[in-house]
Amino acid sequence: MSRSTRWTIAVLILVAAIVVALWRQLDTGSAPDAAVAGGPAVAREHRDADTPEALAGPRAEAALEPCPAPGVGPSSSGPAPLRGVTVECAADGRRVDVARAVAGRPTVLNLWAYWCGPCADELPAMAEYQRRVGDDVQVLTVHQDENETAGLLRLAELGVHLPTLQDGRRLVAAALRVPNVMPATVLLRADGSVAEVLPRPFATADEIAAAVNAGLT
């Protein structure tokens, strides 16, 4: 074997060794690097820590009104953007078929999260609006963060006892095509169809009443 042939073989072996080393480094490092980079996480309705036992105290403190009982559901041929969406009732943890819960009367859906400052300012106004209108319109809030405990404690702090859906996966917002802002309010007709999406905060019950009257009449 000539010297040039031996050098060629040595170079090829070296190159192969480098390629194998690089491949191993990439293979073992790819998963941790992706985790550190903050790849897309799987959205959850609530945290693992939010067990029924852990939520018992915050639920008692919040003292929320029960979520709406199923009304006369929308027909299979009618508009029903929420059909098939089920989430948890924050008051007691039972599953709620949202389309059936809002069927039968006009509904104001208020989308919020515990960490949202404007939401905290708006929620008491929503409660006051509900007190004024009684059974003519129902106000249903939707907590859009997986930290259910924090949502319950925020409502307790605000003294707001409106029926609330726990929707950490934001299924309701996705079904209704609500912009990714909070707070946001959706006006639903009695048949479950969307009358208006209002991606802005309200300061008073009077402002809410004016928006509902304009959107649902």
Proportion of residues in helical segments = 40-55%
How many DSSP H or I helices? 7
Report the sheet-strand fraction. 5-15%
In order across it, which strands form the biggest sheet? 2-1-5-4-3-6-7
**From the helix content, strand content and strand pairing, which structural class follows?**
alpha/beta
Number of strands: 7
CATH class category label of the largest domain: Alpha Beta
Listing every helix as H and every strand as E from the N terminus to the C terminus, the arrangement reads HHEEHEHEHEHEEH
Biased composition (Low complexity): 31-42
Protein name: TlpA family protein disulfide reductase
Transmembrane segments: 7-26
Pfam families: Redoxin
For the structure shown, list the relevant keywords.
217 residues, Glutaredoxin, 2 domains, 7 helices, 7 strands, globular
Topology:
Blueprint: H1 3-36, H2 52-62, E1 86-89, E2 95-97, H3 98-101, E3 107-112, H4 117-133, E4 138-143, H5 148-158, E5 164-166, H6 171-176, E6 184-188, E7 194-198, H7 205-215
Parallel strand pairs: 3-4, 4-5
Antiparallel strand pairs: 1-2, 1-5, 3-6, 6-7
Helix pairs in contact: 2-5, 4-7
Subcellular location: Cell envelope
InterPro entries: Redoxin, Thioredoxin-like_sf, Thioredoxin_CS, Thioredoxin_domain, Thioredoxin_ResA/DsbE_sf
Protein name: TlpA family protein disulfide reductase
